[in-house]
Amino acid sequence: MLEVLRKLWFRDVKEETLFINDVAVRIRAGFLLAIPIFMSFTLYDAIFVSNWVVDGNTAVDSGDIDWDNHIIYHVDATRRVFDYTFQTYVLIYALLEMLSGMFVWSSRLSPIILISSFLARKQKPVWKPLVPKRFAWGLGSSFIIVCLIFFNPEVFAHWVNTVWGSNLLPTTENYMSPYIPLVLVWICLGFMWMETVLGFCVGCKIHSLLVLVGVFKEECEACNNIDWDEIARKNKVRLAEQEAQKKSE
Hints:
Pfam families: DUF4395. This is DUF4395 domain-containing protein. Keywords: Membrane, Transmembrane, Transmembrane helix. InterPro entries: DUF4395 (IPR025508). By secondary structure, the protein is mainly α. The protein has one domain (about 1-55, about 75-220). It has twelve helices and four strands; from the N terminus they run αβααββαααβαααααα. The chain has helices at about 1-5, 20-30, 35-50, 85-100, 105, 110-120, 130-150, 155-165, 180-200, 200-210, 220-225, 230-249, and strands at about 20, 50-65, 70-80, 125-130. The strands form two sheets. It has a two-stranded antiparallel ribbon with strand order 1-4. The longest helix is centred in the middle third of the chain and has 22 residues, at about 130-150.
């Protein structure tokens, strides 16, 4: 437990090139998977469910019919008012969680990183470089920021209008299409599912492509991820076999 508290999911916190345990990363992604699932239900309710609440007990036959011979009723209906305070808090936490894993000092502020590192302590670690993960989490952070703007359009509009000194964005209506955060939430859900279940990091693959075209530079992961203990064990076995062969001759 003390080792977990000291290193968390890092191979060595003093390394110049940081490596983290991908087993703990996948466990953490499994915990955080609950957030896009919750947000997908929230956005479905906001976009596809009727904004009107109808009281069926007040329905009164008007005596008229429409063009399709359907009876027209008079009812008492109220328009739903959406309060996204809780969703905002959840997204803020998710944003802080994404950012916290990028550095050693900030990782200690995340309870999920601590729990994930503890759960992965008895499994064989799979060391992966931190830099591609930082890019992936930065991509996820941008998705979260877009969703925060959708849930709080007036706050962002006031901020932008104050900076620009003009009414660039309206403060009485949502200027963002609801399908933008809906698509991003489903993309995020898919990415996190692949990370958790398949161990496939889409953000890391995008980062590797950017390295390939020269946008980023990084060291060779395969060279830095060599299992020297396993190599030493195989060499020891090979030398023992050679020694036994010499004696038999």
